[in-house]
Design goal:
Blueprint lengths: L1 E5 L5 E5 L4 E2 L6 H10 L4 H5 L3 E7 L5 H13 L4 E8 L2 H5 L11 H9 L7 E6 L2 E7 L2 H4 L8 E6 L13 H10 E9 L4 H9 L3 E4 L10 E4 L3
Parallel strand pairs: 4-5, 4-8, 5-7, 8-9
Antiparallel strand pairs: 1-2, 2-3, 6-7, 9-11, 10-11
Helix pairs in contact: 1-3
The site of S-adenosylmethionine has 20 residues, from helix 3, strand 5 and helix 6.
Length: 225
């Protein structure tokens, strides 16, 4: 069962009762999209260059990349933005139609879902200077289709390492490293020791991400110290 819940910043997400986890932090779903992903990945600064490529891993409802699009367009309305979204479950992708977070660009995700039955494995959605390519499947496999040195930012947002340990292993982080530009930043909500060890083993450097409330700091990873 997937049940709608309200988080502490008054924005909606869903609780997956089977998995026993919600799709966003209960301290604030939209706050998390901004403060754990868009800000540490420096989306505002990237927007000034006029071109951003974002990999949204485990994209779910699309909050993280939709928020990044808002932040980028606020800085530079003409910025060309390409999002590749990797998600396993078409059911949660469709659920975006049932929520109304204060993220303008969530409307793009709603349009994408309305225009598609999500039966195809790849969905390409274009509007003005925004491109969203959704690839449905196991992200550990679908990421292998992505080009080397391509992305400026990676939002890495699987269920927790406790629930989904398979998503936090070295080979998947090595793939992330492969598709990152040398200047890219990967951000994730987890600061678990095993996650950081695996990030290091994949050849990336890590640091604390921002602290929100009383929760742990999250992690940012780069190819440079
Ligand atoms: C914490 S939620 C992410 C929420 C999402 N970022 C959002 O803004 O809605 C974790 C997501 O990982 C997806 N997932 C789980 N296993 C996966 C896999 N092997 N490949 C791709 N996605 C997976 C789940 O379906 C779920 O949507």
């Amino acid at each position: 069962m997937i049940k709608k819940i309200l988080t502490a910043d008054n924005t909606e997400t869903f609780l997956n009762e089977e998995v026993g986890e919600s799709y966003h932090s209960q301290t604030g779903a939209v706050e998390e999209a901004l403060k754990k992903y868009a800000i540490p990945c420096k989306i505002k600064e990237l927007a000034k260059t006029g071109n951003i490529k974002i990999l949204d891993v485990c994209s779910g409802l699309g909050y993280n990349s939709a928020m990044a699009i808002d932040v980028a367009l606020e800085e530079n309305l003409n910025c060309e933005i390409e999002v590749v979204a990797l998600e396993f479950d078409p059911v949660i992708v469709k659920k975006v139609l049932e929520v109304n977070p204060p993220i303008k660009s969530i409307e793009l995700y709603k349009e994408m879902v309305k225009d598609n039955d999500l039966k195809s494995r790849k969905i390409n959605f274009n509007k003005n200077n925004i491109k969203i390519n959704l690839i449905i499947g196991d992200a550990r496999e679908t990421c292998k289709e992505l080009p080397d040195n391509y992305f400026d930012a990676i939002f890495f947002d699987p269920f927790s390492p406790k629930t989904s340990p398979e998503m936090w292993q070295v080979p998947f982080f090595s793939e992330m490293s492969r598709v990152m530009k040398n200047s890219a930043i990967l951000a994730t909500f987890s600061c678990a020791r095993i996650v950081r060890e695996n990030i290091s083993k994949a050849g990336l450097f890590y640091d604390d991400g921002p602290i929100i409330g009383r929760r742990g700091p999250g992690t940012v990873a780069t190819k440079w110290v």
